Amino acid sequence: MNARHVVKHPKPKNPVETLANTRHEFGEHGGVNMSIEASTTFTAMHPDILADMFHGDKGPDKGGCYLYGRHFNPTVYNLSRQLAALEGTEAAYCTASGMAAIAGTLFQLCGTGDHIVSANTIYGGTYALLQDFLPAKAGITTTLVDINNLAAVETAITPRTRVIYAESIANPTLRLADIPALADIAHRHGLKLVIDNTFSPLILSPKQLGADIVVHSMTKFIGGASDHIAGAICADKGFILQLMDLHTGALMLLGPTMDPQVAFNINLRIAHLPLRMAEHGRRAQLFAERLKDLGLAINYPGLSEHPDHERMSELHCPEYGYGGILTLDMGTEELANQLMDMLQNDYRFGYMAVSLGYFDTLMSCSGSTTSSEMTEEDKAAAHISPGLVRMSVGFTGTTEQRWRQLYSALERLGVVKAAAKPGAKGGQRRAS
Ligand SMILES: *Cc1c(COP(=O)(O)O)cnc(C)c1O
User: Fold this and answer.
1) Whose CA is nearest to atom 6 of ligand 1?
2) Ligand 1 atom with the shortest distance to the CA of 356
3) 300, 284 in Cβ contact below 8 A?
4) Cα of 420 from ligand 1 centre, angstroms
5) C-alpha angle with apex 247: 242 to 249, nearest 5 degrees?
6) Are 160 and 172 in contact (CB under 8 A)?
């Protein structure tokens, strides 16, 4: 990294302290868990109240008034307050999916003719939204740039640019977006910096680092059990109210509403998110170090070789490490597929599946799956090789049991150098 670009930033605070200070919602009968408000419509105790709500003079934070389930729902709003605390934003709102959070945010910020500068290494769905859908359906165009090339980011800005968009940790390259530097550029040009923090909840706090809006797919780490599709938008109160405006709000009018039952279920996972993130990170770090010792082409931000290791060490919350995702380049798609097949079907190490943040390990070959929306040139430019296996490291089983499974498969494929032994380096890491 070019030193003159480094924007100094104070170390972010651990968001768990903010979370622990949020108001606890008790259930209707004093239950320790909040109740599920399953109603789609709400009675007004006085005829004036309905009119006041349509005028925005009454609402969830103005007299505790609710109107209709696609607008605000108390259970969804309670989860939203936890997300706001998690990201240190004034407010938040939950959506039916991560894509709904991203699309809703961009539709709210951009109109026809407007322009976005985005990282070229982003989730495949977001890539398709920016590259194909938004220009065709809404006349909103995007310039994709190497987000770590700050000069390229600044050069791509036009008079119609409204947004700089990036993922905190890019998929699947695991490059770190330099959020303080991007915020500096965005704010000098009067733009909003939108960060997708799906890969690094708690690990990175984009808002504390200068971002304006933080979006999440809660389908991944936050949900933690691969059982709900869900998303969130964390921002200042003004932006959340804009999204929910009865006449002009993207969430209100496009309608990707989260179901209160889903909100309730996800709410129960927030309390142990810190424990899970720490353990995902601890195991990913250990496996990354051992795979590196075996001479394999491993990429993980917790390794000193990673191009953004130093910057991440300055910006992350150390309690949660460097994240639960690593990539291993097997060279060819064939070898990558053999490895995943063995790991799933012979050793029970994990599952061949897209997605991430599950309690078990999930593995996929990025080039032919989650990044398959990208053109071959864009993939090449982003260093997404055909043999790249992305692993979302789970925390079931014991660490050493999982390591033995991984090592056995690699050894059988003949990719481990003969002299290397599992855990041979670092005595404290030996299996037995
Ligand atoms: C999965 C994912 C999304 C999309 O989220 P859904 O909940 O599947 O709509 C967006 N961004 C990233 C980084 C993701 O991993």
Assistant:
1) 98
2) 15
3) yes
4) 37
5) 35
6) no
> What are 102's two structure tokens?
């991203």
C-alpha separations of 51 from 118, 371, 406 in Å: 41, 48, 62
217 C-alpha to ligand 1 centroid (Å): 5
HSE toward the beta carbon, residue 382, CA cutoff 13 A: 30
How many angstroms separate the CA atoms of 98 and 107, rounded?
14
Where does CATH 3.90.1150.10 sit in the chain? 274-412
Quickly name the fold that domain 274-412 has.
Aspartate Aminotransferase, domain 1 (3.90.1150)
The rounded Å distance from CA 33 to ligand 1 centre is 28
The DSSP output letter for 169 is B
| Per-residue model confidence as pLDDT tens for the chain (432 residues) | 444 467 888 888 999 999 999 989 999 999 999 999 999 999 988 889 989 988 889 999 899 999 999 999 999 999 999 999 999 999 999 999 999 999 999 999 999 999 999 999 999 999 999 999 999 999 999 999 999 999 999 999 999 999 999 999 998 899 999 999 999 999 999 999 999 999 999 999 999 999 999 999 999 999 999 999 999 999 999 999 999 999 999 999 999 999 999 999 999 999 999 999 999 999 999 999 999 999 999 999 999 999 999 999 999 999 999 999 999 999 999 999 999 999 999 999 999 999 999 999 999 998 777 777 777 887 777 778 889 999 999 999 999 999 999 999 999 999 987 545 555 444 344 333
Q: Is the CB of 415 under 6 A from ligand 1?
A: no
Is the C-beta atom of 124 inside 6 A of ligand 1?
no
CATH number of 15-37+73-270: 3.40.640.10
With a threshold of 0.85, does the pTM exceed it? Answer: yes
Atom of ligand 1 nearest to the CA of 101: 9
Q: State the span(s) of the chain assigned CATH 3.40.640.10.
A: 15-37+73-270
Atom number, ligand 1, closest to the C-alpha of residue 122: 13
